[in-house]
């Protein structure tokens, strides 16, 4: 079993608060059909998260070209899955993600896959699930991903959604790096669940080279260590 989030945090030298050292990144999907990754790199971006899948019936048509473009530009990159918990089980969606770009390899340039679980764009905020059922669904996804890859996925959410739809559940802070969406000019002070801090902060829904702006909570060397799960 690979290191937990807190173990990764310690190994990478991250503090349990917002770090003074940060790394610019961003996340994208098919809504950004073309991205100039080299220009983003030249402007300081060093990592990117790319949408791969949604539910069990959608694969992002530009995932492969985005992934290759990021690789060619010298970026650390990874895929993400938009969760639809009112559909297939967590394990089934993890398998679908893994089969369509969501895998991980210990090459130093691939971040663990990211589970994007947040407000439902198609209906009920919590997808019709109770807090207990939602936590079980997330656990199902997380455990299936870890079983297949040897590393735990990152979890993307907001503090408000996590409180509303999971009851502010703990149990993930020691295993899954947190990608926290909180649009502001200063680092978020409200950390959900039992996470000690965030690993990545999505600080804006508008990035100069497309998609959303993401800030890694640490140095580039620390980001490399998380990519290697070392």
From TrEMBL:
Enzyme Commission code: 3.2.1.17
SUPFAM superfamilies: (Trans)glycosidases (SSF51445)
Major location category of this protein: secreted
Localization of this protein: Secreted
UniProt keyword terms in alphabetical order: Antimicrobial, Bacteriolytic enzyme, Disulfide bond, Glycosidase, Hydrolase, Secreted, Signal
Swiss-Prot/TrEMBL GO biological process terms: carbohydrate catabolic process; cell wall macromolecule catabolic process; defense response to bacterium; killing of cells of another organism; peptidoglycan catabolic process
Pfam families found in the cross-reference section: Glyco_hydro_25
Gene Ontology MF, one: lysozyme activity
Enzyme class: hydrolase
Annotated InterPro entries: GH (IPR017853), Glyco_hydro_25 (IPR002053), Glyco_hydro_fam25_subgr (IPR018077)
Record's keyword annotation contains Signal: yes
Family: Belongs to the glycosyl hydrolase 25 family.
Function noted in UniProt: This enzyme has both lysozyme (acetylmuramidase) and diacetylmuramidase activities.
Protein name: N,O-diacetylmuramidase
The organism of origin for this protein: Aspergillus bertholletiae
């Amino acid at each position: 079993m690979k290191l937990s989030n807190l173990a990764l945090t310690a190994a990478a030298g991250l503090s349990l608060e917002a770090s003074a050292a940060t790394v610019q990144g961003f996340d994208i999907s098919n809504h950004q059909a073309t991205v100039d990754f080299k220009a983003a790199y030249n402007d300081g971006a060093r990592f990117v998260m790319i949408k791969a899948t949604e539910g069990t019936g959608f694969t992002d048509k530009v995932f492969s070209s985005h992934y290759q473009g990021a690789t060619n530009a010298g970026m650390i990159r990874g895929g993400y899955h938009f969760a639809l918990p009112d559909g297939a089980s967590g394990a089934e969606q993890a398998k679908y993600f893994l089969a369509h770009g969501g895998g991980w390899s210990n090459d130093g340039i691939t971040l663990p896959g990211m589970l994007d679980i947040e407000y439902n764009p198609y209906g009920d905020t919590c997808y019709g699930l109770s807090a207990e059922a939602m936590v079980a669904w997330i656990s199902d996804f997380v455990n299936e991903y870890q079983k297949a890859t040897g590393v735990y996925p990152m979890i993307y959410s907001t503090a408000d959604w996590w409180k509303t739809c999971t009851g502010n559940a703990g149990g993930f802070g020691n295993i899954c790096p947190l990608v926290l969406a909180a649009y502001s000019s200063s680092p978020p002070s409200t950390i959900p669940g039992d996470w000690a801090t965030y690993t990545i902060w999505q600080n804006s829904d508008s990035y100069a080279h497309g998609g959303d702006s993401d800030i890694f909570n640490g140095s580039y060397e620390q980001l490399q260590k998380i990519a290697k799960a070392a």
